[in-house]
Amino acid sequence: DGMFIGTPIEQRSRIADLLIDPKASARMLGMFRRMERFDRYRPLYEALVVDDFLDVATTDRIHDAEIPAANGVFTARSLARMYAALATPEAFDGPPLISPETMAEATRIQTTGDGRTGDTVGRDAVVQFNMRWRLGYHLAATSAGVLPNGFGHFGFGGSGAWGDPDSGLAVAMVLNQVAGTPFGDTRFLRIGGAAIRSARRRE
Question: Whole-model pTM?
Fold first, then answer.
């Protein structure tokens, strides 16, 4: 309950209004435009700056479509539960959401470099650090360190989640703000770190 990609009309009253700080949005757009002048940062600009994005993101009609990369609507509990079911299927009754073989492939690190230098481990050409990309997922970073077998994803506004089969944990943070940072919201790193440290103290 509380998880949609393409939200039914009868559920839309549950969606929190998006909070947009025009000054913060203008600052971010200005930063991106300055970055465009540098070859190293041009991929970041081209990936994240979309004409009229905020106009599209803030209309109710965006929920008419199913756009997994752009219009998911979740509660933090529902998103964490989905990641828990993926990371620890044995803890749930019934068949797994995804077969073990498909899940193994989806969470296998697919990138070996930044696409330019041929390095075995390198920076992502867009965000400029090693994201350890899987198929739609990336590394699970926390203030307690990167989880070696963890996988997750966060969006531009800062919402995101991860699951970790080693610890059996899944953590999610859901926001209704649009102007986050290109790298998510750093509060999520601290929340994830607190969860990991708490779990370790219970071992």
Answer: 0.81
Q: Please state, as a whole number, how many other Cβ atoms lie within 10 Å of the Cβ of residue 158.
A: 21
Residue % of the chain over a pLDDT of 70 = 82
Residues 6+ apart with CB under 8 A from 172: 74, 76, 77, 79, 80, 83, 159, 160, 161
Dihedral sign, Cα of residue 60, residue 63, residue 69, residue 74: positive
Establish if 22 belongs to a structural domain: no
The answer to whether residue 57 is domain-embedded is no
Specify whether the CB–CB gap between 1 and 78 falls below 8 A. yes
Query: Looking at this protein, which amino acid is placed at residue 191?
Result: I
Q: Please compute, for residue 191, the number of CA atoms within 13 A of its CA located in the half-sphere on the CB side.
A: 17
Per-residue pLDDT tens digits for 20-76? 777 777 777 777 777 777 777 777 767 766 667 666 667 888 899 998 878 889 999
Look at the chain and report how many structural domains it folds into.
Answer: 1
**Do the Cβ atoms of 150 and 199 come closer than 8 Å?**
no
| Burial class (CB within 10 angstroms; exposed 0-12, middle 13-18, buried 19+) of 113 | middle
Q: Residue 195: name the closest of 106, 73, 87 by CA.
A: 87
DSSP H or E stretch at residue 82: helix 76-87
Residue 113 belongs to a domain:
yes
Asked if residue 83 lies in contact with residue 162, where contact means CB atoms within 8 angstroms, the answer is yes
- Apex 121 CA angle, 139 and 129, nearest 5: 55
